[in-house]
Amino acid sequence: MFFLRNLSHTINLHPSYYGPHMKEFLQRNLHGDVEGTCSGRVGFIICVLTITNISPGKVLPGSGLAEFVVHYQAIVFKPYKGEVVDAIVTSVNQIGFFADVGPLQVFVAQKLMPSDFKFDSNGPCYRGDDQMIEKNGQVRLKIVGLKHQATQINAVGTIKEDYLGQIQ
């Protein structure tokens, strides 16, 4: 699910960047530091929308660096258990398949597929009565488990329920 969140980030600025263009440098640095990153508690930071506040800098003793706290609004992607999402299959093997939901990688084990799905090594793919799951194919899956770590989120999914599986 996508959310609009108010977040903050601390930036240390070298003295060579002090001057009239300091604010533009802080903005570029913020975008480079946080966009495309993952925090287990926040989720995947997709895009910084606006910078709401830049604190006055504090010079750090001994180094000459200035520390700024930048408050901003960002669009974040945070998946939840039970959420149904569309994904693109990235790899298929005998134990299951991996699919990407934007920046999130989801693993679907063979036990979490309908019983009629069989692995076909001549593809490789999984074939069911009326569906086939192969690399670069689109699937609709349900997230059944999440593991939040400091810099990543791991997910397990299923296609064993109604209206899940290959998207045609």
UniProtKB/TrEMBL annotation:
One GO location term (cellular component): RNA polymerase II, core complex
Q: Corresponding gene? A: RPB7
Provenance organism: Linnemannia gamsii
Indicate the segments forming the S1 motif domain, all copies. 78-152
Q: What is this protein called?
A: DNA-directed RNA polymerase II subunit
Enumerate the subcellular locations listed in this protein's record, separating them with semicolons.
Nucleus
Describe the family membership recorded for this protein in Swiss-Prot or TrEMBL: Belongs to the eukaryotic RPB7/RPC8 RNA polymerase subunit family.
- Return one Gene Ontology term, BP aspect: positive regulation of nuclear-transcribed mRNA poly(A) tail shortening
Question: Which residue spans traverse the membrane?
Answer: none
Q: Does the keyword Oxidoreductase apply?
A: no
Under InterPro entries, the record lists: NA-bd_OB-fold, RNA_pol_Rpb7-like_N_sf, Rpb7-like, Rpb7-like_N, S1_domain
Q: Which GO terms describe its molecular function?
A: single-stranded DNA binding; single-stranded RNA binding; translation initiation factor binding
| Superkingdom of the organism of origin | Eukaryota
Q: What keywords are assigned to this protein?
A: DNA-directed RNA polymerase, Nucleus, Transcription
Q: Which residues form the RNA polymerase Rpb7-like N-terminal domain?
A: 8-64
